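Hi, does anyone understand the following?
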Amino acid sequence: MACFGRSSDTKTVKSPADEEGFYYACKLDEIPENEAGFCVSVNKRKIALFKIRKEKTRVYALSDRCAHQATSISSGDLEDLEGNTRIKCPGHGIEYSLETGLPKQEVAFKQKIFQVKKKNEDEVWVKL
Protein backbone atom coordinates (compact mmCIF):
# COMPACT_ATOMS: atom_id res chain seq x y z
CA MET A 1 0.00 0.00 0.00
CA ALA A 2 1.29 3.45 -0.80
CA CYS A 3 -0.15 6.70 0.37
CA PHE A 4 0.14 10.42 0.61
CA GLY A 5 -0.62 12.02 3.90
CA ARG A 6 -2.38 9.28 5.80
CA SER A 7 -4.69 8.23 2.98
CA SER A 8 -4.44 5.10 0.87
CA ASP A 9 -4.31 6.81 -2.52
CA THR A 10 -1.40 7.20 -4.90
CA LYS A 11 -1.29 9.96 -7.49
CA THR A 12 -0.41 8.51 -10.90
CA VAL A 13 1.52 10.59 -13.41
CA LYS A 14 2.68 9.65 -16.90
CA SER A 15 5.08 12.19 -18.28
CA PRO A 16 7.92 12.37 -20.75
CA ALA A 17 11.39 13.19 -19.50
CA ASP A 18 12.76 16.68 -19.93
CA GLU A 19 16.13 17.35 -21.57
CA GLU A 20 17.95 16.41 -18.33
CA GLY A 21 16.07 13.15 -17.69
CA PHE A 22 13.68 14.51 -15.02
CA TYR A 23 9.98 13.58 -14.96
CA TYR A 24 7.12 15.74 -13.70
CA ALA A 25 5.79 14.39 -10.37
CA CYS A 26 3.37 16.93 -8.87
CA LYS A 27 2.73 20.51 -7.80
CA LEU A 28 4.77 21.64 -4.80
CA ASP A 29 1.67 22.52 -2.77
CA GLU A 30 0.39 18.91 -3.06
CA ILE A 31 3.16 17.70 -0.72
CA PRO A 32 2.42 18.15 2.99
CA GLU A 33 5.04 20.22 4.79
CA ASN A 34 7.02 18.56 7.62
CA GLU A 35 4.55 15.67 7.73
CA ALA A 36 4.06 12.24 6.20
CA GLY A 37 5.14 11.89 2.60
CA PHE A 38 3.23 12.17 -0.61
CA CYS A 39 3.26 9.07 -2.79
CA VAL A 40 3.23 9.50 -6.53
CA SER A 41 3.59 6.87 -9.22
CA VAL A 42 5.75 8.41 -11.94
CA ASN A 43 5.78 6.25 -15.04
CA LYS A 44 4.93 3.21 -12.86
CA ARG A 45 7.64 3.88 -10.23
CA LYS A 46 6.30 4.73 -6.76
CA ILE A 47 8.13 7.68 -5.24
CA ALA A 48 7.70 9.08 -1.72
CA LEU A 49 8.09 12.87 -1.71
CA PHE A 50 8.79 14.83 1.46
CA LYS A 51 8.71 18.63 1.81
CA ILE A 52 10.83 19.84 4.72
CA ARG A 53 10.97 23.47 5.80
CA LYS A 54 13.90 24.57 7.93
CA GLU A 55 15.85 27.67 6.84
CA LYS A 56 14.45 27.02 3.37
CA THR A 57 12.07 24.49 1.86
CA ARG A 58 13.57 21.33 0.35
CA VAL A 59 11.88 18.41 -1.35
CA TYR A 60 13.31 14.90 -1.04
CA ALA A 61 12.40 11.86 -3.13
CA LEU A 62 12.91 8.24 -2.10
CA SER A 63 11.58 4.96 -3.39
CA ASP A 64 8.26 4.37 -1.62
CA ARG A 65 9.17 0.71 -1.09
CA CYS A 66 11.31 0.19 2.01
CA ALA A 67 14.62 -1.45 1.08
CA HIS A 68 14.22 -3.78 4.06
CA GLN A 69 10.70 -5.13 3.71
CA ALA A 70 9.03 -3.36 0.75
CA THR A 71 6.60 -1.52 3.07
CA SER A 72 5.35 1.88 1.88
CA ILE A 73 7.48 4.49 3.64
CA SER A 74 5.45 7.54 2.62
CA SER A 75 3.12 7.00 5.58
CA GLY A 76 5.98 6.75 8.08
CA ASP A 77 6.83 9.29 10.76
CA LEU A 78 9.42 12.00 10.21
CA GLU A 79 12.11 12.39 12.85
CA ASP A 80 14.91 14.92 13.20
CA LEU A 81 18.20 13.57 14.51
CA GLU A 82 20.87 16.24 14.96
CA GLY A 83 19.63 18.22 11.98
CA ASN A 84 19.26 15.16 9.73
CA THR A 85 15.61 14.49 8.91
CA ARG A 86 14.73 10.81 8.64
CA ILE A 87 11.67 8.83 7.66
CA LYS A 88 10.77 5.96 9.96
CA CYS A 89 9.44 2.95 8.07
CA PRO A 90 6.10 1.88 9.55
CA GLY A 91 6.99 -1.80 8.95
CA HIS A 92 9.97 -2.40 11.23
CA GLY A 93 10.95 1.10 12.33
CA ILE A 94 14.11 1.47 10.26
CA GLU A 95 14.95 5.17 9.95
CA TYR A 96 16.33 6.36 6.60
CA SER A 97 18.01 9.71 5.97
CA LEU A 98 16.03 11.77 3.46
CA GLU A 99 19.30 13.14 2.06
CA THR A 100 21.35 9.96 1.65
CA GLY A 101 18.93 7.03 2.02
CA LEU A 102 21.25 5.52 4.63
CA PRO A 103 19.63 3.90 7.68
CA LYS A 104 20.29 5.06 11.23
CA GLN A 105 20.43 1.43 12.34
CA GLU A 106 23.34 -0.75 11.34
CA VAL A 107 21.60 -2.78 8.69
CA ALA A 108 22.68 -3.56 5.16
CA PHE A 109 19.80 -1.74 3.49
CA LYS A 110 20.01 1.64 1.75
CA GLN A 111 16.88 3.38 0.56
CA LYS A 112 16.96 4.48 -3.10
CA ILE A 113 16.94 8.25 -3.45
CA PHE A 114 16.16 10.37 -6.50
CA GLN A 115 17.33 13.81 -7.56
CA VAL A 116 14.66 16.49 -7.34
CA LYS A 117 14.34 19.84 -9.05
CA LYS A 118 11.68 22.52 -9.08
CA LYS A 119 10.47 24.13 -12.29
CA ASN A 120 8.28 27.19 -12.69
CA GLU A 121 8.40 27.78 -8.91
CA ASP A 122 5.61 25.24 -8.25
CA GLU A 123 6.40 22.00 -10.12
CA VAL A 124 8.35 19.07 -8.65
CA TRP A 125 10.37 16.92 -11.06
CA VAL A 126 12.32 13.74 -10.22
CA LYS A 127 15.12 11.97 -12.05
CA LEU A 128 14.37 8.25 -12.27
Residues 1-8 have pLDDT under 50 and may be disordered. The longest strand covers residues 45-53. The chain has no helices and ten strands.
